[in-house]
Amino acid sequence: MGSADDGNSTLGHKAFKRSKSHFADRVTADGRDGWPVEAGRYRLVVSRACPWASRAVISRRLLGLEDALSMAITDPIQDDRSWRFTLDPDGRDPVLGIRYLSEAYDKRESDYPGGVSVPALVDIPSGKLVTNDYQQLTLDLATEWTALHREGAPDLYPRALRDEIDTVMADIYEDVNNGVYRAGFASSQEEYEEACAGLFRRLDLLTPRLAGQRYLVGDTITEADIRLFTTLVRFDAVYHGHFKCNRWKLAENEVLWAYVRDLYQTPGFGDTVDFDHIKRHYYQVHTGINPTGIVPLGPDLAGWLTPHHREELGGRPFGDGTPPGPAPTAEAVPAHHRPTTEPTHH
Q1: 110 and 4 in contact (C-beta within 8 Å)?
Q2: What is the pTM assigned to this prediction?
Q3: Active site residues
Q4: Residue 162: CB partners within 8 Å, gap ≥ 6?
């Protein structure tokens, strides 16, 4: 997710275009880009607010890479210097020793085009950014980092299904993952209506597909599900109101609401979601859209924990693998940032 470099007041005042990742080096098993897979060498910098970063957080959890790939969590509120480590003691990342993610970008290249985005993979010894290629990063965690996967890690990008997964993900990216942003940051009525119509057309197409099968491709969780989940989990909390994607709420679509709850209740998904970070980031940072910076109280989160009955469709969430164990204590989402079984009253 982009930076605040150009001042967040521009959001909503100019046409929205997602910038390509400028730093597209890959960390691979053979190290062909000069970055070999190595336990303890890299640090994954994320914001729990950002759907693009959340893909990497979920993949890392499902694959059991916590010990091999450490993780830094930024403040959900950026300032004009980019993502910052104000949640850490002294406002510095304890491993990289920096206050702002931009410092790792600057060590790699000065005056780079595009903003400072997460997820970012940083080389700990040099302090340099390695990649901010959010599309490739999770695929590489699934396929290049296999030597460091936990026992029982699922295959999130099975070779036999890759063509279908890629096709499904391309449509979801265009209309859903990016579609909500194109609607939210539209600078004309026409631009907004086109993006919003495309988003709901795609969700309407996904509904019958997911009515008959538990997961998007095959009978196990794949990268495609991770990418759809990170947008859907934010839908009612921010995209419906803040981005005006309000033809209907996700909770009003029986199939998609059950699908996203099924994933939310699967270890590795919901336990990474911080609704407080999500809401504060969108409503407080995008001042071009929400000038008051007021964060809404709703929606009530209790519904996330209700039965979804998706197991009746069969499917094996982790295939021949097993669920991940609990999140490391230091990475647990605070209880008051998650749903409880009791309705929330303020």
Answers
A1: no
A2: 0.94
A3: 50, 181
A4: none
